[in-house]
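Appendix B, record 7
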Amino acid sequence: MEAFQRDVVREIGAIERALSSLDAPRILLKGAAYVYCSLPAAMGRIFSDIDFLVPKAVLANAESQLMCHGWLAGRLSDYDQRYYRIWSHETPPLTHLRRGTTIDLHHSLVMPTCRRPVDSQSMIDDAIYLGGGWWRLNDLDLILHSIAHLLLNSEFTHGLRDLSDIDLLFRNLSDKDPQFSRRLEARAQAVGLGDFLYLAAMLCHSFFKTPVPEKWLETPAPFFFSLFRMSCGVRHPDTRPALQDIADFALMVREVFNRFPSRILIRHLAHKLMSATRTTEVATN
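Structure tokens (predicted):
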């Protein structure tokens, strides 16, 4: 585990050198931030890519500099290129030609097309400087970004890990500050994630007995709570819940609906349907 964390810090150093001429803040996100800052959520945490964010105005410049230092995007269809370049909150994943390490380069914390009005810019503006050109989200927003990432996603292979991140961060930060819960609730309401906070608190308490305020557990969300609890649980084929596939599908539909306004949603679903049909035809033939 220590070797993995040293590799992550070393890779962040390589990224820092590649972007040394970029005159803009770089905000480490998720696992990379936890490891770089030696936060409790880094304990035992394994991840395959390094996520960080730069302002959209310098996104193309940052991507070009990374490409010059060996990180390249894989081959994508025209549709997928348009998805990343116009709608997404990140570029296509960049993989280093020699080391095989992967970067997810963000310009926003949530999809710009997202129906949910999350104040991503406020969270970016309040980031904390770490030195060496690197920043991280403040303590409140570390948790809120983790919550948004989990509940606006439909890939739950690491759902339990994400809930563990939230649990560990909350325990550590609330132990240091008796008013942390109150401040977190106020911040969640201010950036548009109030109901997400309550749902995540219910899930964390269900799995880890996270010591959240009792009133957060009284917020009714039984349907989505049940779906997320099923999808975030055990995924081993021999022990997973019988209805987990149905829960996954329902949450995938919810995610796509939340990510896109109606005009883009129809186009996106039509493309996915056509792609699935072509894949089936190729497999049949």
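Remarks on this record: The longest strand covers residues 49-53. The CA atoms of residues 86 and 244 lie 33 Å apart.
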